[in-house]
Amino acid sequence: MQAVGRSELRMEHLGRTRLRVAWFGHASGVRGDGLSTYSAEMVRRLEEKGAHVRFFYHGLDGELVPCEDTVVLPGYRWKTVVIPGKGYRATMEEGMASFRPHITHASWSFSLADSLVGNMAHRYGGKSVATFHVPYGESGTARGIVMDGLYRYHGRALARFDRCVVLSSRQRSLLAHQGYPRERMLLAPNGVDTAIFSPGPSGLRRRLGASFVVSYVGRLDPEKRVVELIETFARMGWPSDHRLVIAGDGSQQKTLYRRWGKHHGIHFMGNLANRNDRVELLRATDVFVLPSTAEGLSLSLLEAMAAGCAVVATDAGDDGTALGDAGIVLPIAGLDGSLAEALYQLWRDPSLRALFGRRARERAVTRYDIGRHVDEVWSLYRSLAPATVDLQ
Known about the structure:
Oligomer: single chain
Radius of gyration: 21 Å
Shape: globular
Strand content: 15-25%
Mean pLDDT: 91
């Protein structure tokens, strides 16, 4: 942790000063998912715009962080929830008091102490913003009911934040239903670095000895339905040089490895925290599959689109809307038959795979580049920051 320099603080009395952002986000190393990717991309680009970012994170996520000024918070993980550890509040308060941020931004959900982040932002004179990543399920389904309950829970803590960045119109409606004012929400779809995630050569196909590659990147948790994807792939009787590549970790990791780890056609790559490893996988991919029952707007989906993959995804969260006619969108229910049919259709028709890949790439570049998202958030900061802060 680096204290704000005295010369920087004195600038506030002399004129304009550099924007200070306290970012509560997710490191990678142990963790490797869309939340850690979002923090890494946002912090890096905010600093490129001239902000001084202090990055608050949990050490249990790993030690790969996107900037030099950091505060490590103690905590414990229970499934997907982070529970604050001993000294959590004191460590957070010390980091906030010495930094005095103009903007405090939480990548939600951060921990069970999310509301504390908003309270501390106001205590030290700044404004608070949250980007709300919590997924949602299809209305009326068991998963949808569970996720609606989570929105009610999070909505109470979110009320302490001045603004909320939402990733889809459906998400905005769900939060408005829980009482968060629409006028305090910014709709800014998720984004990826389309210069990095792009079509190109990959040596992975040769190393796998594969002529056809199906891939999945994401958490290995029940709502992602990786079990169903593996079972569908295994039943299709592919030639021996066809591969299903699974990248990620989660609660089902040991079970999946134990059951399928020795299957000649299935390759587990573990957590790909390094984005270059994900780029290499996606460039080697013929068909990318995301069979979730609940999503917000998946970054792994957008990365696959930007890399020019032919994509098959369920209509979960905003994923179906994002993919549109640039791939195959499946209903959430009845996955087994529809997934097998989609895989077979794309396997037998290389020209259709190429067409979907081009469309997906174009859609990612024009609608979901990370630069658009950062610019929207920067404009929001401009509306909240004091007049003495320099925001070009």
